[in-house]
Amino acid sequence: MRFSFKIFIISFFLVISLLGVGGFLIINSNFNNELLIKKDSTINSNKMLTMIYYSISLNDLNEYVYEFNITDYILKQFQNISNNGEVFIGEKANLKYIDNSTFINELNDNEQASRIFKNGEQSFFQVVTKLNINDEDIYLENLVDITNIYELRSQNYKFYCLFLIIGSLISSSIIAFFSIYITSPLKKLQQTTNQIASGNFSIRNDDTLKAMKSPELVALATDFNNMTNRVEDYIKELEDYNERQENFISRFTHELKTPLTSIIGYADILRTYDIEPKKRYELANYIFKEGKRLEDLSFHLLNLIILKQDKFPFKTYNSKQLFRELTQTLAILLKKYSINLEFNIEEVNIFIEPVLLKSLLYNLVDNACKASEENNKIIISGIKNDNLYIISVQDFGKGIDEENLKKVTEPFYMVDKSRARKQGGAGLGLALCKEIATLHKSELLITSKLGVGTKISFSVEVVNDK
Amino acid sequence: MIDILIVEDEESISNLLKISLTQAGYTCHTTYDGETALERINQNKYDLILLDIMLPKIDGFEIMNYIKELKIPVIFITAVSNVDNKVKGLKLGAEDYITKPFDIQELLARVEVVLRRNNKTSDKIVYKNIEIDITSHTVKKDDKIVDLTKKEFDLLLLFLKNKNVALYREVIYERIWGDEFFGDTRTVDLHIQRIRKKLNLENEIKTVYKIGYRFEVLE
């Protein structure tokens, strides 16, 4: 059942039942009150009648005014002063109503009894007192027509029923309107949820929901939007991750399959045909170079995997010492490319994993050399900045354009593929550097301009000695 | 002569293709990126294009799109071996799709099939008075059918496709019998003797000392 319908049904029945029961209770108690008042007054007037009759009949006056009919007199007087219906005094047989009812027969002397009875359409209240005067049974009766009280009640009932029907019609339409009005934002929310469930994560609850002015719903909508934002972010992240993974795999297979194809192909030619020695050297050389490429690839890959898994022994290291050791390992490289290395270094104790950090710096300098012309210079600087020691490697080579800059740290990415190949690169160097920098809680910050040069910096922690 | 354009950015692979295809008797031209490939295709007429997908500047799919109207048969060569790419390539109108690492012999066979399908080569090879019909597997000498076993037929074909090259016995065995060679060369020798006799090719099929055989085309 729809929520709005439920609200409608529940509130409708609540209103109707409360009004109905309440109304009938009020009408009934009104009726009872009126009846009680009528009864009381009748009973009282009967008592009064009895008292008057009793006192007169005991009086000796009787004898003097024998001819005078006391009963008639009293009745006359009494009828005048009382509105309580008809009055009767006399023998039992002459009472106004003595149907089969036993209550009169059961009366003792000086006792009063009353009853309500119906005669046709009419209702009556009857009060009877029995007196025994001079061994004679005298009955004093008051009879009141109370039909109008009953009629009033049923009239009230009818009127109230009509009121209920009209009222329920009006209230039901108002309730229906409100229940739809209240649940309409929920319906909107549901539509949005539906859209999201079917994969459209960019949809949001729009301003119409906020226009509902119900703070709970506004809060719900806001929370909902926040939730969707988070979900969308997560999904984007996952998609990005997936895409990176897929890129990695497709590049990796490419990097793996190309040398394999060459090696197998050239070897096949060599073993199939008897070829002249000069040509044979050329083919064998291809096999050798592609084999080297595979070797390089597997080493780098292994490093990448290890970096992602292992914990490394970090220690306090003197920055001067680090760069001194680095210079020694770089010597051959610098000679090969004829590059001058300049240092700009503050001496400070840093917290690093020296082997990895040297490998990171070696890779950066290696890249810088490859991008530089002969006799260019490369500047390595180390500057203390609060708790961080910022190390950067700057070259004045050909630089990287903006589009490539974003991708250089992706595995297997090569800016100049054919050149990188000739220099024996597998496209994993910077990806490796990035991982090492991450281990040192830093990122690689790369700034570059075509034709001007490239600067790559990262930071390590400074050890504060006291 | 059949002209084949090789579009492949990996120098080693490109060279490998060139050597193998030249050996098989085709004329090869190589380019290393998509842009020059398009220039070449516009300027020259090729019978077949071997196209890498991951290319610098313009990728293989784009080139394929561009040259569809030219009706030149294309074989894609790529390291990406997922089905989507394969379907995409074939839908674009490529004749075939070869994934790296590939076997050179397989490549040559596919090239041959594609060329024949496009009527670039006839399914008949004629050498002097000998006529070989590849599809019906028949050999005629002076217009008379000569009975050859399947192995003998394959052997003859191998020699005719590798004219003037010394072939190692072991490799001959592997190509024709399909198993890895394990030391017995007499099978090869016997079959070759029979071919020589049946087709009078004693002068053409030369024994090369310590290596194997060579089919020499006599001028």
Q: How would you sum up this structure, described in words?
A:
The complex is a heterodimer of chains A (466) and B (219). Chain A has 466 residues and is of the alpha+beta class. Chain A has three domains: 3-157, Beta-Lactamase; 213-310, Helix Hairpins; 312-462, Heat Shock Protein 90, CATH 3.30.565. Chain A is built from twelve helices and eleven strands. Chain A has helices at 3-58, 61-64, 70-81, 147-197, 207-210, 215-272, 277-309, 319-337, 354-371, 402-405, 417-422, 429-439; strands spanning 86-90, 111-119, 122-133, 136-145, 315-318, 340-345, 349-352, 377-385, 388-395, 445-449, 453-462. In chain A, the strands form two sheets. In chain A, strands 5, 6, 7, 8, 9, 10 and 11 form a seven-stranded mixed β-sheet that branches. In chain A, a hairpin with a 2-residue loop joins strand 8 (377-385) and strand 9. The radius of gyration of chain A is 56 Å and the shape is rod-shaped. The mean pLDDT of chain A is 81. Chain B contains eight helices and twelve strands. In chain B, a hairpin with a 2-residue loop joins strand 6 and strand 7 (130-133). The relative contact order of chain B is 0.10. Chain B has a five-stranded parallel β-sheet, with helices on both faces. A four-stranded antiparallel β-sheet of chain B has the order 6-7-8-9, with helices on one face. The two termini of chain B are 19 Å apart. Chain B has two domains: 3-117, Rossmann fold (3-Layer(aba) Sandwich); 124-215, Orthogonal Bundle (Arc Repressor Mutant, subunit A). Chain B has 219 residues and is α/β, with parallel strands linked by helices. The mean pLDDT of chain B is 84. The longest helix of chain B is centred in the middle third of the chain and has 14 residues, at 104-117. Classes of the chains: A alpha+beta (466), B alpha/beta (219). Chains A and B meet through helix 6, helix 7 and helix 11 of A and helix 1 and strand 10 of B.
